[in-house]
Design a protein that fits this description.
The chain is mainly alpha-helical and 540 residues long. The chain is 58% helix and 3% strand. It has 23 helices and four strands. Strand 3 and strand 4 form a beta hairpin. The protein is elongated and about 85 Å long.
Length: 540
């Protein structure tokens, strides 16, 4: 579980903390947005409210380390539930351990480790649900009315991933309808009661409207809703291919080579739910971990059942022993250790604009501010609405953000003039932005969208850049802090050209780089420019 001990870098965890702080200070659950100036007062369905209270209370008692501990406990609890599910199917401990290690490796992007986003709670609840679902497969009745109501009501007030659990149970039920003698009514009643229990939130049916907006709108704007790329999710795509290859083999293998698909008490009977989870994971990176919980367990069980079927042969006797399974578990753990990030705590300063926000506060930079989407969560936590945020990860739960983000994408995909008009329409006087992806066609993107004639670059580090308008309010700030010659996003060849242009330009570039290196001694961007210009310094 050391792979879960990672620096805090998820952009949404900060506005979750800020929401919990707001509820503590106001003694109420938010109904409208109190943090932004672009959507202030518009309806806000905070579907994570109970999680945020719990999160902020822990942070007040134990600091930010509580967030890492909570994430670790959720992942560990999900793996314990998975272990119970596989143990009740008769799998030996090495096989269970190998499946769990595979879940850890393949559920997250390569080298990223487990982030602390709120969906980790749903990961825990979904694993518990799969464990109980396994018991229903063996003919056990669903839990009583009260446990089912409490389970789904608690899940719905913590995280809106409960819809995934209801969808899997509903698809299983649909698939059972044609089967004679299947106990459908009790399961249908349990699912219906679970759905009714999810209405026991402060927002009632409005919660489902936000979930629908999330599925319709977020895939176009939010990174977690993008598809998992092969380069970063190669283990997931391998598991997906093997999982469905094994299922297809079951229905195409010669008689006697595969177990009947509808055999009672065995996994692998359902097809609709695995198809749904596979489709969802292939389209949206956030769903990969939920598919892996289902697929890794089913693959381990299928392999073990196949071994038991061929135990009479020499190869079967060898594989049936614990030795090969122990070796497989050890190999999976080694792969996990190599693939995942080493344990580290603290805040990920490469993703969170801690120093930049500190500069804004220390120098009392005037707004209104534009901020990058990924910086909005920390902005809310750092400033608590003063100055207000432009946009953050609460989209589309904050109703007013829908229009803001639509306008943002239209402006971003347009020309620099359209971008300038977009900022002007909100009266933005300063902008905290991240570094754009490298572009062969237009490398100095920020120089085009924040032209020096209207904007001054007054701060930059390895994470963020701060631009301010050239106006009277920022005159003193610009005089003291502007980078006139150096732009970290510019083509290094252009900086070399300026270096050679005149002794005065050379002196200014050297002064700016050394000043920034004194403020950020570990800045790799500054060090890279210094090292690039060092050979020119020695030439005559």
């Amino acid at each position: 579980m050391l792979c879960c001990i990672q620096p805090l870098g998820d952009p949404d965890i900060w506005w979750h903390l800020a929401s919990g702080r707001w509820m503590f200070s106001h003694g109420a659950i938010p109904r409208s947005d109190p943090f932004s100036f672009t959507a202030f007062g518009t309806p806000w369905v905070d579907s994570y409210w109970l999680y945020e209270i719990f999160l902020y209370a822990g942070e007040r008692l134990a600091g930010l380390g509580w967030i890492i501990l909570l994430k670790t406990l959720c992942v560990a609890g999900a793996l314990v539930a998975m272990d119970k599910r596989l143990r009740e199917r008769g799998l030996p401990w090495p096989a269970r351990l190998a499946a769990q290690a595979l879940v850890l490796v393949a559920s997250q992007p390569r080298g990223a480790g487990w982030t602390e986003n709120a969906s980790t709670l749903s990961f825990l609840f979904f694993s518990i649900l799969l464990w109980r679902r396994e018991r229903w497969r063996r003919g056990e009745p669903p839990p009583g009315v009260l446990p089912g109501l409490l389970f789904f009501a608690l899940w719905a007030n913590l995280h809106r991933g409960f819809v995934l659990g209801l969808a899997v149970l509903g698809l299983d039920l649909i698939e059972k309808v044609p089967r004679a003698g299947a106990p459908k009514w009790k399961e249908a009643g349990f699912i219906a009661l679970g759905g009714l229990a999810t209405l026991a939130t402060p927002y009632g049916i409005g919660l489902y409207r936000v979930i629908a907006d999330d599925f319709i709108l977020s895939p176009a704007h939010t990174n977690n809703w993008f598809g998992p790329p092969l380069s970063r999710f190669a283990p997931f795509w391998c598991v997906l291919a093997i999982f469905w290859a094994s299922r297809i083999w079951k229905i195409t293998a010669p008689a006697g080579r595969a177990r009947p698909l509808q055999e009672e008490g065995k996994g692998g009977r359902e097809w609709l739910a695995p198809l749904f989870l596979s489709w969802l994971a292939a389209r949206h990176a956030w769903a990969v971990r939920f598919f892996m919980l289902e697929a890794c367990g089913e693959l381990a069980a299928a392999v073990w059942e196949g071994v038991k079927d061929h135990r009479g042969g020499r190869l079967g006797r060898i594989i049936a022993g614990e030795g090969p399974w122990t070796a497989a578990a050890a190999f999976a753990l080694i792969v996990s250790a190599v693939s995942l990030q080493p344990a580290r705590a603290g805040v990920d300063l490469d993703r969170v604009p801690v120093a930049a926000c500190g500069f804004i506060a220390q120098n009392k930079v005037s707004g209104p501010f534009y901020n990058a989407y990924g910086f909005g969560g920390y902005w809310i936590w750092r400033f608590n609405g003063d100055p207000p945020v432009f946009i953050d990860g609460r989209y589309p739960s904050v109703r007013g953000y829908i229009r803001v983000l639509d306008r943002f994408w239209a402006a971003k995909q347009g020309n620099p003039g359209a971008w300038g008009r977009f900022l002007d329409s909100y009266g933005a006087r300063a902008a905290l932005v991240g570094y754009p992806a490298p572009s062969v066609k237009n490398p100095p993107a920020l120089d085009r969208y924040f032209p020096r004639s209207r904007w001054a670059l007054v701060y930059w580090d390895d994470t963020a850049l701060l631009f301010v308008r050239r106006d009277a309010r920022h005159r003193d700030l610009i005089r003291r802090w502007e980078f006139r010659e150096v732009s970290p996003n510019a083509d290094p060849a252009e900086i070399e050209r300026r270096w050679r242009s005149s002794p005065a330009a050379k002196a200014r570039i050297r002064e700016e780089l050394l000043a920034n290196l004194a403020i950020h001694p570990r800045s790799w961007r500054t060090a890279r420019l210094v090292n690039r210009l060092a050979p020119l310094e020695t030439r005559r």
